[in-house]
From TrEMBL:
Keywords: Membrane, Transmembrane, Transmembrane helix. The chain crosses the membrane at residues 26-49. It comes from the Bacteria. This is Cell envelope-related function transcriptional attenuator common domain-containing protein. The lineage of its organism: Bacteria, Bacillati, Actinomycetota, Actinomycetes, Propionibacteriales. It comes from Nocardioides scoriae.
Amino acid sequence: MNSGGTPVSDVETVRPEKGRSRRRRILTRVAIGFLVLALVVVGFLVFTYNKLENNINAIAPDLGDNRPAQVEVEGPEEPLNVLVMGSDDRSGTDIGGETPGLSDTTMLLHLSADRRRAYGVSLPRDLMVQRPACPGKNGKTIPAGLTQFNEAYADGGPACTVRTVEAITKVRIDHFVVINFAGFKDMVNAVDGVKVCVPNEVNDTIGNIYLPAGTYKVNGNQALDYVRVRHGLGLENGDIGRMKRQQAFIAAMVAKVVSRGTLANPLRLYRFLDAATSSLTTDRGFAKLRELVSLGTSLQDIGLDNIAFVTVPNEEYQPDPNRLQLAPEATGLWRKIRFDKALGSYGADALVPGRKPGELPTDGASGSPSASPSGSASASPSPTTTPDQAAARAAAEAARKQAAEDAGLCA
């Protein structure tokens, strides 16, 4: 007992209560602080999500009733066919010497049902096709007839383009995306530029475009110039070369976007997503951010080695050498897409983001047998190359390099 008559043990039991109370108050404040921080973060994420989703312009096009049936194929998911169009519509300006309101870039993007391969097939704007009847922008019906492919977009917008692609391919389009080329510049800037290789100096006096020769990083307007230039290259058909450069640039940009430098940088990733969604017009079923995220995730899971970009087989249109028409081989390519098959021989000259020029494709992109893992017991020895085979390979490589140079690409 102390001098006041209170037991010492009773005094000692009071002090721990005060200590626990102080710690409890501190923990409560910390918990409240974390809660406030969590609410701020959640609020920011919700705001960001809503902002990105609200950036997307959604429309409900009239695609008509006479559409190809969806072919049933085996796989954990349904195949996905997305028609991607590049347009100058929103800018209202003349870019690179092109007339506003035209779609100069059209690509059919196909993802397989097993999500193991994807490929984009470019359609030349100068392709002569049988366009079906379409609702025009002025509300009047555009009669069916033979016309240049990109006239479908000029006269009837995305709806007429989808109808035309479905008519000539017999492939049902699940969704479409229109990318505003003026906003494309912001997408390139958001990832801090994309590296390109220009084999020869480009001096396009018609589009007022100049590109020096060499390998370097392009940003903004210069990137737009690279994918739009058609003149000043000494090419007989500038549109085909331009499509190949667009494919090469898209492949390089896909690789840049899925790289650690972008995905691991929240600010850079947000800027890219903000620029991308601000540049998009889609059908209403594809206007939700989760749908676009799902598409991006699928492409990332497929892997860069199994994403291929090709141009539909085409040939000169006899009545007008400045126009093109589908080659007979195109029918086989459309069947590959319709029945969800690998590209096979159609992927021999494909541009693949994860593959070096001249490197053989994997089975995911082309359907070719894949090699056994190096060093495995079951690996068979490589057959001896005959002189004729070596000569054929050398000729094929020379042809590939020449085709790349003709398209304004480095071999």
